[in-house]
Amino acid sequence: MSEHKHDVVVVGAGPCGSTAAYEIAKAGHDVLLLERDEYPGQFNSCGGGLGNFLVDRFDLDQALVHKHIHTVKVDLGFTRKTYNADKPIYVSVKRTELDPWLAKRAEKAGAKLRCHQKAIEYDPYHKRLKVLDRSNQTHYDVIGDLIVFADGARSLAWPNCRIGVDNKRDSIVGIAYELGYPDNPYDAFEFFFDEEKLPYGYYWIFPTSDTLNVGMGGPADQLGGRVGVMLQEFIDAREDLKGLKPVRKSSGLIPSYVAEKFHGTGVLVVGDAGGFVNPLTGGGIYLGMVSAEMAARTVNEALAADRSDAAFLSRYTRRIKLSPFYAGLKTFHAMVAYSEWRRKRTGRSAIGHIFKLYSDIGDFALRRL
To answer: Which terminus of the chain, N or C, has less C-beta within 10 A?
Structure first.
């Protein structure tokens, strides 16, 4: 069994892993970026909606943007509301395009991208990662002075290092169909709430230039194996969607809570592996990429100081918990917890009302701030 050594190994080449790899490689360090699938974003399930500000915030290529979205429609069941803005609120992208672009940028900065490589076990005592080369079913070991886990809700970080999210706790399941519709006229993001069928979660329709991304998300323990059937029923109930054929189907798990600890000796977690997901929307790209930047800053400091101990890396967890986005994240989780408490007590969910408040605040910010 061969063995390879690097300054840093990043596990997962989604937006968070590639952002971390990019920032660390820019600083001149030897970075290995591992991706389990044949290319980044191949099977990621996502609505593909990003806040418009992310394009400039993360210096994304405008060519990745399919549509600029000025209108958001929210159907709460008991009421409907439309939000319009002079400037774009969101942009629509495809993960099969965004993820490879971010990974390629990390490569250009000096990171080594290896696809179809699945990390299957981590030995924290020897800083050794066991990897399966899925192209030929052989195993090899990788050693990193520091490991950044960006491998999602089922991260190796918890079972091996007891940091990040517990991969055995309840998760949110998301499923998305990309329905083929070239040159479609849709120009709004649409959210649909159904408190009877989906007490916590929603359906969505997000257009790109040639598809409609239609999906839903909710607690895995409540939905069981019915998500595919429920999404198809939603599609069939709409005359404008019925008959459109999916060109891509995807599903995945999202953590249902934010972790308490994001570092250990020689290891850090970013993105879904740390629970950096907005529980109201299920969106995790922005929060995850911010966590990746903060992790990269800590890694660069650690390498400069020749430190990998937990005491030094604790500055990452401390920075996260002192950040405004973490405070917002905890607030959103408290709102969701209240909705679930109310549902169990009265049989009625409050998630639609909370999402309306969230949207109203966002609309106010766009218009006044």
So the answer is: C
- What total of structural domains would you count in the chain? 2
Specify whether the CB–CB gap between 336 and 200 falls below 8 A: yes
Instruction: Give the list of residues 6+ apart from residue 72 with CB closer than 8 angstroms, or none.
Output: 82, 83, 89, 90, 188, 189, 190, 191, 359
Residue 252 structural domain: 49-90+170-256+346-369
Closest CA to 96 of 173, 163, 32, 13: 13
Cα–chain-centroid distance for residue 9? 20
**pTM passes above 0.85:** yes
Do the beta carbons of residue 330 and residue 258 sit within 8 Å?
yes
On whether both 37 and 114 belong to a single domain, the answer is yes
- Quick one: pLDDT at residue 366? 47
pLDDT tens per residue, range 298-346: 999 999 999 999 999 999 999 999 999 899 889 888 888 888 888 888 8
> pLDDT tens digits for 268-301?
999 999 999 998 888 999 999 999 999 999 999 9
Q: Are strands 171-180 and 246-255 parallel, antiparallel or unpaired?
A: antiparallel
Alpha carbons 289 and 309: distance in angstroms, whole number: 24
Mean per-residue pLDDT of the chain: 93
| Whole-Å CA distances, 109 to 284, 337, 355 | 24, 42, 39
Express as a percent the part of the chain with pLDDT over 90. 77
- Residue 15, phi then psi, degrees to nearest 5: -55, -35
Residue (of 43, 156, 154, 61) closest to 104 by Cα position: 61
**DSSP, residue by residue, 45-70:** ----EEETHHHHHTT--GGG--EEE-
